[in-house]
Design goal:
- The protein has 219 residues and is an alpha/beta fold.
- The protein has one domain: Rossmann fold.
- It has helices at 4-7, 56-67, 91-107, 120-130, 172-180, 202-216; strands spanning 11-18, 23-30, 38-43, 72-75, 112-118, 136-140, 159-164, 188-191.
- The protein has an 8-stranded mixed sheet, with helices on both faces.
- Helix 3 (91-107) crosses helix 4 (120-130).
- The longest helix is centred in the middle third of the chain and has 17 residues, at 91-107.
- The chain is globular and about 45 Å long.
Length: 219
């Protein structure tokens, strides 16, 4: 993957990486101080509904991790932008995310994995986390009504859900029920008067996300 030299230069680094079936267009975000024990992999909204790695919620995630000193990698899913392949209902997309995580660990085996995603990307992140040695899972506006978030059994690492209570895409009540009925119960950061895309709430989203991560892990 040859990330080590890129991490030495803070900022955003566009690159192409090899996925399971083809090249993936990606962006590596390197923090000013790269001393964290973690690395984060980020998933974007639905590929067939205009979702890309440039989505504002996804880039807000990248900025949050950067301020925490955690490098992150986001990529366009199959068939999006210049990524090869075609939409695969979250299965192939999570396979690609796992491959990227494993390739990263070949260069930096000491890094602990964080998977995070928004909307459809949260399902991709969930599948990747459940099939790896992930240390943290963050699912923002997860479409629990459309995808099976109990299909796989993730380890009992911290799992955070973030949900707006006026989401016009994902039924907020179903997300709250899913979290409360999980064992252990999944913590949820609830955003009042907030729709699916967190319009006008991105700064608050970044702040609350950073606060929660700091409360859960030693950076």
């Amino acid at each position: 993957m040859q990330i080590t030299e890129k991490l030495a230069i803070p900022g955003e680094h566009p690159l192409f990486l090899q996925g399971a079936i083809g090249k993936l267009e990606a962006v590596l975000t390197a923090p000013e101080q790269n001393h964290s024990a973690f690395v984060a992999f980020l998933g974007h909204p639905h590929s067939l509904q205009g979702g890309t790695m440039s989505n504002k919620v996804v880039t807000t995630l990248a900025r949050a991790f950067k301020e925490l000193g955690i490098p992150s990698l986001r990529f366009n899913f199959r068939g999006v932008g210049q990524s090869e392949g075609a939409y695969d209902s979250g299965i192939g997309e999570s396979e690609d995310m796992l491959i990227l995580a494993r390739e990263w660990q070949k260069e930096q085996p000491e890094k602990k994995l964080i998977f995070a995603g928004f909307s459809f990307g949260s399902y991709v992140a969930y599948r990747a986390a459940a099939q790896s040695d992930s240390q943290f899972l963050i699912t923002i506006a997860p479409p629990v009504h459309h995808y099976d978030y109990r299909e796989l059994n993730p380890a009992p690492y911290p799992w955070l859900m973030i949900q707006g209570d006026e989401d016009e895409v994902v039924p907020a009540a179903l997300v709250f029920d899913f979290a409360s009925q999980s064992t252990p119960e999944i913590p949820v950061i609830r955003f009042a008067n907030t729709g699916h895309f967190f319009h006008g709430k991105l700064i608050e989203l970044k702040t609350k996300l950073m606060e929660f991560i700091r409360s859960q892990v030693v950076l």
